[in-house]
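REQUEST FORM: STRUCTURE PREDICTION
Request ID: SP-0412
Submitted by: Lab K.M.
Chain count: 1
Length (residues): 84
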Amino acid sequence: MKIILGKDCTIRQLESKKDRLGKALTGPKGKISIEISKLEKIDTAFLQALLAVIKTCEKNGKKWEIKGRSAAFESILACYGITL
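STATUS: Completed
RESULT:
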């Protein structure tokens, strides 16, 4: 399943993306591909949601990938010392 995120990924947009992320986790086996090439702004709440999706994938043996890593995404990962 492919999930395409827009340029703003903050707590305000999280509600609208929550259902899509949940469906990806509960859907059939297969890789979850999260496209973030257009991402310009991400906050801690949205990052936590993405990390929860990744952790759930790993726990359930579901493959995942993040495509098009943007400078904003790399910056927030570095801020919290997270490597993916």
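NOTES: The chain has three helices and five strands.
Reviewed by: T.R.
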